[in-house]
Design brief:
2 domains, 3-stranded antiparallel sheet, Arc Repressor Mutant, subunit A, alpha+beta, single chain, globular, 119 residues, 4 helices, Dna Ligase, domain 1
């Protein structure tokens, strides 16, 4: 479904496009303080429903929203909460899963551990 893009919707999407990572609704709001936080949440959810934005639950208090044209996965540091983006061949992941009689539409991998931030 293609939705009409109001100025507010365009502003929210522009913030996500400019970020090379994921933002919470609060972080989007910090960049667009003139917009109501409820408006930001509502539009982020519409972007997710339309498939334009990915919603991530990476263990923090808030969901994160990310605009990305390329499929990728995430590694999250348990100490500093840094999020690292990486790609992995989905075909190999599907084979490793070994799920018979199941048509995989999407693969979302989140790896947790500790990054080398201390070294």
């Amino acid at each position: 479904m293609t939705r009409r893009y109001s100025k507010k919707r365009e502003q929210i999407l522009d913030v996500l496009k400019a970020e090379h990572g994921a933002l919470s609704a609060s972080e989007v709001h910090a960049q667009l303080p003139a917009l109501d936080l409820a408006t930001i949440y509502r539009n982020l959810e519409l972007f997710v429903a339309d498939g334009e934005v990915q919603k991530l639950q990476l263990g923090g208090k808030e969901a994160l929203f990310e605009f990305s044209k390329e499929a990728h996965h995430h590694a999250v540091c348990n100490e500093c909460h840094k999020v690292i983006h990486f790609t992995a061949p989905d075909a190999k992941i599907k084979k490793l899963l070994g799920i018979a009689d199941f048509n995989v539409d999407e693969i979302e991998v989140t790896v947790r551990g500790i990054c080398n931030h201390a070294t």
